[in-house]
Amino acid sequence: xxxxxxLESSTRNCSVVxxxxxxxxxxxxxxxxxxxxxxxxxxxxxxxxxxxxxxxxLDAVAVGEGPGSYTGLRIGVATAKxxxxxxxxPLLAVSPLQAMAWEARRRAEVEGLSSPEAIFxxxxxxxxxxxxxxxxxxxxxxxxxxxxxxxxxxxxxxxxLERPFFFAGDACxxxxxxxxxxxxYFYEDIRxxxxxxxSLSAHRFAEGKFVDVAYFEPFYLKDFIxxxxxxxxxx
Length: 235
Known about the structure:
By secondary structure, this protein is of the alpha/beta class. The protein folds into two domains: 109 residues, Nucleotidyltransferase, domain 5 (2-Layer Sandwich); 91 residues, 2-Layer Sandwich (Nucleotidyltransferase, domain 5). 27% of the residues lie in helices and 26% in strands. It has five helices and ten strands. The strands form two sheets. It has a five-stranded mixed sheet, sandwiched between helices. It has a five-stranded mixed sheet with strand order 8-7-6-9-10, covered by helices on one side. Helix 1 crosses helix 2. It is globular. It starts with a strand and ends in a 28-residue tail after the last helix. 42% of the residues are buried.
Protein backbone atom coordinates (compact mmCIF):
# COMPACT_ATOMS: atom_id res chain seq x y z
CA UNK A 1 0.00 0.00 0.00
CA UNK A 2 1.71 3.14 -1.26
CA UNK A 3 1.63 6.31 0.83
CA UNK A 4 1.79 9.17 -1.69
CA UNK A 5 1.89 12.93 -1.22
CA UNK A 6 0.04 14.64 -4.11
CA LEU A 7 0.70 18.31 -4.96
CA GLU A 8 -1.17 20.44 -7.53
CA SER A 9 -0.53 24.12 -8.24
CA SER A 10 -1.02 24.65 -11.99
CA THR A 11 -3.86 27.18 -11.55
CA ARG A 12 -5.13 29.57 -8.85
CA ASN A 13 -5.99 26.48 -6.85
CA CYS A 14 -3.24 25.26 -4.50
CA SER A 15 -3.86 21.78 -3.11
CA VAL A 16 -2.10 18.99 -1.27
CA VAL A 17 -3.48 15.50 -0.62
CA UNK A 18 -2.00 12.59 1.29
CA UNK A 19 -3.28 9.30 -0.07
CA UNK A 20 -2.89 5.62 0.75
CA UNK A 21 -3.18 3.95 -2.63
CA UNK A 22 -6.35 5.61 -3.97
CA UNK A 23 -7.84 6.60 -0.60
CA UNK A 24 -7.51 10.21 0.58
CA UNK A 25 -6.22 10.45 4.14
CA UNK A 26 -6.01 14.24 4.39
CA UNK A 27 -6.53 17.23 2.09
CA UNK A 28 -5.76 20.94 2.12
CA UNK A 29 -6.88 23.29 -0.62
CA UNK A 30 -7.07 27.01 -1.32
CA UNK A 31 -8.41 28.80 -4.38
CA UNK A 32 -7.32 32.26 -3.29
CA UNK A 33 -4.51 32.37 -5.84
CA UNK A 34 -1.12 34.11 -5.76
CA UNK A 35 -0.17 32.51 -2.45
CA UNK A 36 1.11 29.10 -3.53
CA UNK A 37 4.61 29.73 -2.23
CA UNK A 38 3.27 30.59 1.22
CA UNK A 39 0.75 27.76 1.48
CA UNK A 40 2.26 24.75 -0.27
CA UNK A 41 4.75 23.70 2.42
CA UNK A 42 2.26 24.57 5.18
CA UNK A 43 -0.33 22.30 3.54
CA UNK A 44 2.25 19.50 3.30
CA UNK A 45 2.94 19.71 7.02
CA UNK A 46 -0.75 19.89 7.90
CA UNK A 47 -1.83 16.81 5.90
CA UNK A 48 1.00 14.75 7.37
CA UNK A 49 0.09 15.84 10.89
CA UNK A 50 -3.62 15.16 10.35
CA UNK A 51 -2.90 11.63 9.13
CA UNK A 52 -0.33 10.99 11.86
CA UNK A 53 2.43 10.35 9.34
CA UNK A 54 6.06 11.41 9.05
CA UNK A 55 7.52 12.62 5.77
CA UNK A 56 10.02 9.74 5.88
CA UNK A 57 7.10 7.29 5.66
CA LEU A 58 6.15 8.46 2.19
CA ASP A 59 6.62 6.00 -0.65
CA ALA A 60 6.51 8.68 -3.35
CA VAL A 61 5.69 12.29 -4.14
CA ALA A 62 3.35 13.13 -7.04
CA VAL A 63 3.00 16.52 -8.70
CA GLY A 64 0.66 18.00 -11.30
CA GLU A 65 2.81 18.45 -14.41
CA GLY A 66 0.74 21.15 -16.17
CA PRO A 67 -0.06 22.94 -18.35
CA GLY A 68 -0.98 26.04 -16.43
CA SER A 69 0.49 28.99 -14.58
CA TYR A 70 4.24 29.29 -15.03
CA THR A 71 4.79 30.49 -11.47
CA GLY A 72 2.36 28.01 -9.94
CA LEU A 73 3.94 25.08 -11.74
CA ARG A 74 7.44 26.13 -10.73
CA ILE A 75 6.41 26.30 -7.07
CA GLY A 76 4.68 22.91 -7.09
CA VAL A 77 7.42 21.10 -8.98
CA ALA A 78 10.22 22.67 -6.93
CA THR A 79 8.48 21.64 -3.70
CA ALA A 80 7.84 18.10 -4.95
CA LYS A 81 11.39 17.65 -6.20
CA UNK A 82 12.85 18.98 -2.95
CA UNK A 83 10.75 16.60 -0.87
CA UNK A 84 11.45 13.57 -3.08
CA UNK A 85 15.18 14.26 -3.16
CA UNK A 86 15.35 14.97 0.57
CA UNK A 87 13.80 11.64 1.59
CA UNK A 88 15.19 9.62 -1.30
CA UNK A 89 11.80 8.61 -2.70
CA PRO A 90 10.57 8.56 -6.32
CA LEU A 91 8.77 11.41 -8.07
CA LEU A 92 5.58 10.91 -10.07
CA ALA A 93 4.18 13.32 -12.67
CA VAL A 94 0.41 13.41 -13.13
CA SER A 95 -1.54 15.32 -15.77
CA PRO A 96 -4.14 17.49 -14.01
CA LEU A 97 -6.29 17.27 -17.15
CA GLN A 98 -6.27 13.48 -17.10
CA ALA A 99 -7.06 13.56 -13.38
CA MET A 100 -10.05 15.82 -14.14
CA ALA A 101 -11.22 13.44 -16.87
CA TRP A 102 -10.89 10.54 -14.42
CA GLU A 103 -13.18 12.34 -11.97
CA ALA A 104 -15.65 13.22 -14.74
CA ARG A 105 -15.76 9.57 -15.77
CA ARG A 106 -16.42 8.53 -12.15
CA ARG A 107 -19.33 10.96 -11.86
CA ALA A 108 -20.76 9.94 -15.23
CA GLU A 109 -20.72 6.30 -14.14
CA VAL A 110 -22.40 7.13 -10.82
CA GLU A 111 -25.09 9.08 -12.68
CA GLY A 112 -25.58 6.27 -15.20
CA LEU A 113 -24.62 8.51 -18.13
CA SER A 114 -21.36 7.00 -19.34
CA SER A 115 -20.95 4.55 -22.21
CA PRO A 116 -18.05 2.79 -23.99
CA GLU A 117 -18.23 5.44 -26.73
CA ALA A 118 -18.04 8.40 -24.37
CA ILE A 119 -15.41 11.09 -24.79
CA PHE A 120 -14.11 13.08 -21.84
CA UNK A 121 -12.71 16.54 -22.49
CA UNK A 122 -10.83 18.19 -19.65
CA UNK A 123 -10.15 21.87 -20.13
CA UNK A 124 -8.78 24.83 -18.22
CA UNK A 125 -9.29 28.49 -19.05
CA UNK A 126 -6.35 30.03 -20.94
CA UNK A 127 -7.93 33.46 -21.43
CA UNK A 128 -10.61 34.82 -23.81
CA UNK A 129 -11.98 31.89 -25.84
CA UNK A 130 -8.77 29.86 -25.61
CA UNK A 131 -8.49 26.75 -23.46
CA UNK A 132 -5.93 24.10 -22.63
CA UNK A 133 -7.69 20.84 -23.37
CA UNK A 134 -7.14 17.12 -23.88
CA UNK A 135 -9.46 14.31 -24.92
CA UNK A 136 -9.79 10.88 -23.31
CA UNK A 137 -11.82 7.78 -24.04
CA UNK A 138 -14.13 5.92 -21.66
CA UNK A 139 -11.11 4.28 -20.00
CA UNK A 140 -9.33 7.64 -19.65
CA UNK A 141 -6.78 6.77 -22.30
CA UNK A 142 -5.53 9.76 -24.22
CA UNK A 143 -7.30 10.33 -27.56
CA UNK A 144 -5.73 13.69 -28.27
CA UNK A 145 -2.78 15.32 -26.58
CA UNK A 146 -3.02 18.59 -24.72
CA UNK A 147 -3.56 21.58 -27.00
CA UNK A 148 -4.14 25.29 -26.65
CA UNK A 149 -7.16 25.99 -28.84
CA UNK A 150 -9.92 28.47 -29.55
CA UNK A 151 -13.29 26.82 -28.94
CA UNK A 152 -15.61 27.18 -31.93
CA UNK A 153 -19.00 25.83 -32.96
CA UNK A 154 -17.52 22.84 -34.80
CA UNK A 155 -14.90 21.93 -32.21
CA UNK A 156 -14.83 18.17 -31.48
CA UNK A 157 -17.46 17.38 -34.16
CA UNK A 158 -14.86 15.31 -35.99
CA UNK A 159 -15.02 12.69 -33.23
CA UNK A 160 -18.63 11.81 -34.06
CA LEU A 161 -21.78 13.70 -33.12
CA GLU A 162 -23.54 10.59 -31.85
CA ARG A 163 -21.11 10.08 -28.97
CA PRO A 164 -21.71 11.56 -25.50
CA PHE A 165 -19.21 14.27 -24.63
CA PHE A 166 -18.38 15.05 -21.02
CA PHE A 167 -16.63 18.37 -20.38
CA ALA A 168 -14.83 19.13 -17.14
CA GLY A 169 -13.14 22.34 -16.04
CA ASP A 170 -13.49 26.04 -15.39
CA ALA A 171 -13.74 26.75 -19.14
CA CYS A 172 -17.13 25.01 -19.38
CA UNK A 173 -19.14 28.20 -18.84
CA UNK A 174 -17.72 29.99 -21.87
CA UNK A 175 -17.72 26.90 -24.09
CA UNK A 176 -21.26 25.71 -23.39
CA UNK A 177 -23.02 28.40 -25.54
CA UNK A 178 -20.59 27.91 -28.43
CA UNK A 179 -20.38 24.14 -28.86
CA UNK A 180 -22.93 22.40 -31.05
CA UNK A 181 -23.02 18.78 -29.92
CA UNK A 182 -26.28 16.90 -29.28
CA UNK A 183 -25.12 14.97 -26.20
CA UNK A 184 -23.12 17.29 -23.96
CA TYR A 185 -22.62 17.09 -20.20
CA PHE A 186 -20.69 19.63 -18.14
CA TYR A 187 -18.87 19.36 -14.81
CA GLU A 188 -17.73 22.94 -14.32
CA ASP A 189 -16.81 22.38 -10.67
CA ILE A 190 -14.07 19.86 -11.54
CA ARG A 191 -10.87 21.91 -11.47
CA UNK A 192 -7.17 20.97 -11.33
CA UNK A 193 -6.80 19.63 -7.79
CA UNK A 194 -4.71 17.15 -5.83
CA UNK A 195 -7.99 15.56 -4.64
CA UNK A 196 -8.39 14.01 -8.12
CA UNK A 197 -4.80 12.72 -8.37
CA UNK A 198 -4.64 9.65 -6.05
CA SER A 199 -6.03 7.11 -8.55
CA LEU A 200 -3.56 8.13 -11.23
CA SER A 201 -0.59 8.50 -8.89
CA ALA A 202 -1.31 5.07 -7.37
CA HIS A 203 -1.43 3.49 -10.83
CA ARG A 204 1.80 5.19 -11.88
CA PHE A 205 3.51 4.05 -8.68
CA ALA A 206 2.38 0.45 -9.19
CA GLU A 207 3.67 0.53 -12.77
CA GLY A 208 6.97 2.16 -11.76
CA LYS A 209 6.39 5.19 -13.99
CA PHE A 210 8.71 7.57 -12.17
CA VAL A 211 10.33 10.75 -13.50
CA ASP A 212 13.88 11.91 -12.94
CA VAL A 213 14.01 14.09 -9.83
CA ALA A 214 16.97 16.07 -11.14
CA TYR A 215 15.82 16.73 -14.70
CA PHE A 216 12.01 16.75 -14.64
CA GLU A 217 10.48 20.04 -15.79
CA PRO A 218 6.83 21.15 -15.80
CA PHE A 219 4.80 20.96 -19.01
CA TYR A 220 4.20 24.63 -19.79
CA LEU A 221 2.73 24.10 -23.29
CA LYS A 222 3.46 27.74 -24.07
CA ASP A 223 6.71 29.65 -23.68
CA PHE A 224 6.85 31.97 -20.69
CA ILE A 225 6.75 35.66 -21.65
CA UNK A 226 7.63 38.11 -18.91
CA UNK A 227 5.55 41.25 -18.85
CA UNK A 228 7.16 44.68 -18.98
CA UNK A 229 7.24 46.23 -15.49
CA UNK A 230 5.27 49.45 -15.23
CA UNK A 231 7.40 51.54 -12.91
CA UNK A 232 7.25 55.30 -12.97
CA UNK A 233 10.39 56.72 -14.54
CA UNK A 234 11.30 53.48 -16.37
CA UNK A 235 8.90 53.85 -19.35
